[in-house]
Amino acid sequence: MLKEIHEQPQAIKNTVLPRTKNFLPDFSRDNIPDSLFSDCKQIIFVACGTAMHAGMIGKYVIESVARVPVQVEVASEFRYKNPIVGKDDLVVIISQSGETADTLAALRLAKEKGAKTLAIVNVVGSSIAREADYVLYTWAGPEIAVASTKAYSVQMSVIYLIALKTAMIRGLLSEEETKTYHKELLSIPEKIEKVLKNEEIITTVAKNISSSSSIFYLGRGLDYASAMEGSLKLKEISYIHSESYASGELKHGTIALISEGTPVIALATQNDLLEKTISNIKEVKCRGAMVTCIARSAMPYESGLYDNMITLPEISDLLAPMLSIIPLQLIAYYTATYKGCDVDKPRNLAKSETVE
Ligand code: M6R
Asked: How many Å apart are CA 342 and CA 340, to the nearest integer?
């Protein structure tokens, strides 16, 4: 897992560079026409686990820059609910393995209902890749560890390319604005290298967490989607109970669980939402929570608001999930390691869930 975490900069380069032309997203090598993104009335992401969390990022990003309605569906729910989907919809299936049983069944159902289908898949020639109308391969290389890390980063990368392409061809972003975001995407590998060097503070946080029985991950907007993925990573390899919450939802029940010493990982990368996020952090801090903040270096913080701070290199709100995921993966890895867990082969889990 640690090796795969460190492979992320290269995996992102391998995925984004072949789809870059004149600093703009380009899917001509993938034989994907622009009309796939300009003509659909809505986009529906269907996936499981970590791949579904990449779809959550997609929802926030595409709705924000391209103003196309996006739904995210858990494949095991989608396949049994007689979904409202048809020929005007683009169903985007996300899967590292391309063999997850529920996701494959969801793809077949979407096709049956007449939707256009696009697969974002890592394994070349897998069932999902073969059956979808169009494929965008992620070039992460083989992912062996059960906990998905580099596959998630490249899934997000492809989704950013789709969002930028869709926004540009629909006239929501100018060519210059699209280039600015695309260049930022190209700068991500270098910035991830910097985050990977931040291990000292990350191991300190992991050591503190490793003796806890329950942890909360909080965030708003894109940070909420990242919180969901961070929480899944921790629970699957360290067996610590963890939950992710949209920060504003806390006061509707969950805050009752916060007491002296409860660890809280608070994501605060979204400038637009910073004031609200800070007030949520204060709410848990004054109830005794042990708070670790993940934020962009340029953000102002009052002392006493947090116990530990992990800072990220400067980045736009839109692309922040590409960086904030790195400390979350490392926190999960080191926490599990401190607990003596078999990080690469966690109990009860298979790398690919090919049966229901
Ligand atoms: O191969 P897939 O991307 O379709 O797999 C989906 C999930 O089973 C997978 O992401 C799972 O949640 C990972 N173990 C999470 O780390």
From this structure: 7
